[in-house]
């Protein structure tokens, strides 16, 4: 199966970003003087992967060439990709089942779930982090989440809403993780205008998003813990769990549960 043009461009950019993050010393190559670009040269990576330098250059340039599982595996090993990055590489190369670019509508039954979970903050997000349903507790915990036009998008809130930097105590860690998860979802739908528009909007409005997006970090959606500043200024630890909807895997229910005030962080906004 030939890879569509959008997949090829995304594949080339991903390979280049990953090549540039590896130093010669990390793979046992000698450091030879000043380099014009960071990371490994194309020729060096090709040697490590056991493939033709010309062929690899064509691949990184987005040319229409075929790839095998064996070659992709060799590249993944040479680039030291983790399991998620390796899956991302194979998907971009057209070696994974394609998914529909059209989001499935949220059913009325699913939309009611966050309301049933009140007073625990809960919301359902789609593949581009549009908030498809949320309860009052979520709106209170994340002030400004609901835009004046009645729409909400969690990625826009994190990067473009000033209140997010107050609420998310570890803002940079949370923002980087969210952008990596968004990049993973965008990689499943290269050329999808929904993902393209969102990435452009975040990059235009946030210097951090503009700097981090080209780094091609990828991450899966999952549960975890966050330190959040509650209305009134007190910092509390929250655990959150993510559930993927069976009928629409890119739609995710996220439920928060407060685990108590954070030690030494409960006295207000000056912390």
Automatic annotation (TrEMBL):
This is Helix-turn-helix transcriptional regulator. Pfam families: HTH_31, MLTR_LBD. InterPro entries: Cro/C1-type_HTH, Lambda_DNA-bd_dom_sf, MLTR_LBD. SMART domains: HTH_XRE (SM00530). Residues 14-86 form the HTH cro/C1-type domain.
């Amino acid at each position: 199966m030939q890879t569509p043009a959008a997949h090829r461009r995304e594949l080339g950019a991903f390979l280049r970003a990953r090549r540039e993050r590896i130093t010669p010393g990390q793979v046992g190559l000698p450091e030879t003087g000043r380099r014009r670009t960071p990371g490994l040269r194309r020729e060096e990576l090709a040697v490590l992967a056991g493939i033709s330098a010309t062929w690899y250059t064509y691949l990184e340039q987005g040319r229409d060439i075929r790839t095998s599982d064996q070659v992709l595996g060799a590249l993944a090993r040479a680039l030291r990709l983790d399991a998620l990055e390796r899956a991302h590489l194979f998907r971009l190369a057209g070696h994974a089942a394609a998914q529909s670019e059209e989001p499935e509508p949220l059913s009325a039954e699913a939309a009611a779930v966050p309301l049933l979970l009140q007073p625990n903050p809960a919301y359902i997000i789609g593949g581009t982090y549009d908030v498809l349903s949320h309860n009052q507790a979520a709106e209170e915990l994340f002030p400004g989440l609901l835009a004046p036009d009645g729409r909400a998008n969690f990625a826009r809130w994190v990067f473009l809403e000033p209140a997010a930097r107050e609420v998310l105590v570890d803002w940079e860690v949370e923002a980087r993780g969210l952008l990596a998860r968004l990049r993973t979802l965008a990689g499943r739908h290269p050329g999808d205008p929904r993902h393209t528009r969102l990435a452009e909007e975040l990059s235009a409005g946030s210097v951090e998003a503009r700097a981090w997006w080209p780094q091609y970090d990828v991450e899966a959606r999952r549960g975890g813990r966050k330190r959040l500043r509650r209305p009134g200024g007190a910092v509390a630890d929250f655990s959150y769990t993510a559930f993927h909807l069976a009928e629409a895997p890119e739609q995710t229910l996220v439920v928060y549960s407060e685990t108590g005030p954070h030690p030494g962080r409960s006295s207000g906004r000056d912390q």
